[in-house]
């Protein structure tokens, strides 16, 4: 299987490009990413299959071989600030929980924002 590194990837656009080790640019659709992976950072080493798409080579069955080191993981938030963020998240979750008890689901925008906040908190706690 060919290998290469992510040149760029846009979660909003749903695609990006891989610079293959052979020197070609390969289209990387979000649907080709491994299950549970929604985005990849530039520099991530990938292994992938290739098919001819409408606009050239397209990656299929992508596997992440090596992720680039995260600079953000090394920067921890001040514990007092993290505690305040967690307290705010608890208030938001309580509001969402009360709404769900009354049959109201959060809007897609609110749910997406809450997911990002929770993932950010998890990353800080794990670092």
UniProtKB/TrEMBL annotation:
This is Unannotated protein. Pfam families: CSD. CDD domains: CSP_CDS. GO terms for molecular function: nucleic acid binding. InterPro entries: CSD (IPR011129), CSP_DNA-bd (IPR002059), NA-bd_OB-fold (IPR012340). Residues 1-64 form the CSD domain.
């Amino acid at each position: 299987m060919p290998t290469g590194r992510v040149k760029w990837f846009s979660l909003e656009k749903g695609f990006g490009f891989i610079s293959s080790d052979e020197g070609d640019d390969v289209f990387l659709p979000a649907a080709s990413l491994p299950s549970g992976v929604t985005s990849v950072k530039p520099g991530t080493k990938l292994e992938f299959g290739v098919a001819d798409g409408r606009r050239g080579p397209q990656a299929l069955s992508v596997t992440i071989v090596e992720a680039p080191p995260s600079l953000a993981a090394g920067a921890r938030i001040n514990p007092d600030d993290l505690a305040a963020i967690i307290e705010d998240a608890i208030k938001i979750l309580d509001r969402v929980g009360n709404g769900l008890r009354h049959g109201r689901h959060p809007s897609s925008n609110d749910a997406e924002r809450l997911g990002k906040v929770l993932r950010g908190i998890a990353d800080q706690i794990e670092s």
